[in-house]
Amino acid sequence: MRTVLTVDDSASIRQVVANLLTNAGYRVVEAANGAEGLKQLQAGGVNLVVTDLNMPVMDGLTFIREARKLPTGKGIPILFLSTESDAVKKQQAKEAGATGWIVKPFQNDQFLAVVGKVLR
Amino acid sequence: MSGSLPDPAETYRQEAAELLDMLEQSLLDLDHRPDDRDLVDTAFRALHTIKGSGAMFGFDSVAAFTHEFETAFDRVRAGLAPCSRALVAAALRARDHIRGLIEAPDATDPAVGDTILSALHAAVSDDAAAPAPALPPTAPESASASPRTWRICFRPGPDALVNGTNPLLMLEELRGLGRARVTALLDRVPPLDAIDPESCYLGWEVMLETAAPRSAIEEVFLFILDDAAVRIEPPSDDTAAQAEPGPAAAIAATPDLAEAEPPSVVPPLRPGRSDPDIGRVGGSLRVQAERLDALMDRVGELVICQARLHQLAGAGADPGLTAVAEEIGRLVSELRDTTMGIRMVPIGSLFTRFRRLLHDLSRDLGKPVELVTSGEETELDKTMIERMADPLVHLIRNAVDHGLEAPDAREAAGKPRAGGIRLVARHAGAEVLVTVADDGRGLDAERIRAKAVENGLIAADARLTEPEIHQLIFHPGFSTAREISAISGRGVGMDVVKRTIEALRGSIEVTSRPGHGTEVTLRLPLTLAIIEGLLVRVGRGIYAIPLSAVEECVELPPDEASRGGFSLLSIRGALVPFLRLRELLRTGTAPDPYQKVVIIAAGEHRVGLVVDQILGSHQTVIKSLSRLHADVKTFSGATILGDGTVALILDVAQLLEIGQAEEERGRAKLREAA
Fold first, then answer.
1. Which of B12, B190, B216, B313 could be bridged to B194 by S-S, CB 3.0 to 4.6 A?
2. Where is the Response regulatory domain (chain A) (predicted)?
3. C-alpha closest to that of A95 among A53, A74, A70, A65
4. Among A54, A74, A106, whose Cβ lies nearest the Cβ of B49?
């Protein structure tokens, strides 16, 4: 079973993402910020990361940059959640090493389609 | 994940309340410390989350309002506007408004919201912050039902793989859209030692035949579309796009080529392409033989030059040069084969000449003769055929004159009155065997021996084996015919035959059974000019061994390596004598720790040659040795290597002979010891 790590300081977003992915047959692990996310990632076994960019303690960009330095973080898809207006953020996130993004707000099927696009 | 999940909307409300408190706290602090970046960031993050989550849980009015709020505040965060008191005041009001929108959406007045937003925007600048550009709208496509061919060039950046982009999935997705022909673009792949295994050097070009609109193709590359990593060329005009011989065609052709013929550096010599039209003076072109010789000469020089290029390319690390060198290597070897093919003539043309000869011989000697030929289609270099003609005439004359008995004697011996002469040609590896056989009386060993003693060729008490006695007929000045006839027996025949054949790098063997006949076999190389050679190193010298004679290469067992002199090697049960070329060539250097044995063979004889190192195969352009070296036995010629040095070509026939002699001596010693 594929494991998805969702990193978000918002518990509600984590919950929605978790519900969605669990129902679609993924295993989900959660982290409330980048630092926690790195710990989860370091533990290994994560196939996909969905992360927010605005987070306390360690923001999303730093998290992505650090994640790409981990052996367990290299090569796996990292998606970030972004609002449509974040064109600059998108570019920054991609430069940090993100694979793609999911535009907030999202429809369930859109979300799963993007996940399916990078993880098969 | 627990079984019963709380209502996300309720979770959001709680979360939003916390965030709004945080926002309020930050704003109040900002009133005192307007330059504190951390406070700005915290406030911004709170707004961002409220907006993002709000939209997801159906709090659209919250999301819309917060979006505006956020846009205005973003200017402060970006340093474009100061965090003024007016802003803080407006922001606090905005915060209260959001709270109202979440907790009692029906009780809030949108007009109030608008006023607050105006105040906010006014506080950050004269102009409201322009909303960031949205995703470029996908071009509307008229959904054409008929499939069209798109050309998609896709070059992910070097860090694409680390960043989780999976090109394979994208190509699969493209294949899902229609018929896709995918070609990998390899031009950015560096030499092996410069490759970073985590980097992506490949690109792909896809010719996609699909009815799907452009947006569907763009969807595939969603995340990398704006990185200039993807170029999607629309089908300008279907036929034009198809016929365009762009790089796609050229690149696409390359793997096919590679499949058809893997780029081997030195493909083996392909002997005797039988094209029945070549050589027949008829539906073909007559060319002066000298021109063909000149062409062959140039090809020979080209082969040497190519060897140099190959060496240069191998020494450097330039993949472009290597590719060109391999291409040229392939072309040169094809050119070599083609040129040799032009020079190949079926031996049948020679055989027909002998019909007339036999007819005349038969009439003059009063011996009816029946000629049987086979292998007329066997092809040989034209020069070779021309030079073979005279020796063959000698052999046939000898066979009829000396070999065949008179008709009455044949009848008495229970043979048909007509004598049988067989002319047979056939391929054996890179050699051609031509046999002249008769069913006559066979060689008279006693008479040959007596004659040899009489002529002082051997001592009267010499102990010779039957094959050795047979060999005496090739000795200069040997003739056994009692009376000198006009046909043969002048004693100038067989030795000349032998010399001529050896000059062609061939060998001659005679076998005979008394009463049953004699068989003379000429063993000739296919061509005089270029052979495939195995390069070996002995001491400091490099030598070439004709590859056609090489049977296999094995390692010299360590216990044999330390011993000297004659030895036998067990190769799959058979004992093979071996020669230490180091001793034979007197290299005077220390032997390599792991010496190799090259097993060479001709006919049934096998000999191992101990060398220091096997270097590999080499297209050997044969240069003959000068007249000064005419007596050199061990070498049959020389060749020029890629680096310009000269390698001597080992004479296989001679080495086999030496090997045989060594073996005899060794066996004799063993017998003595026993």
1. B190
2. 3-119
3. A65
4. A54
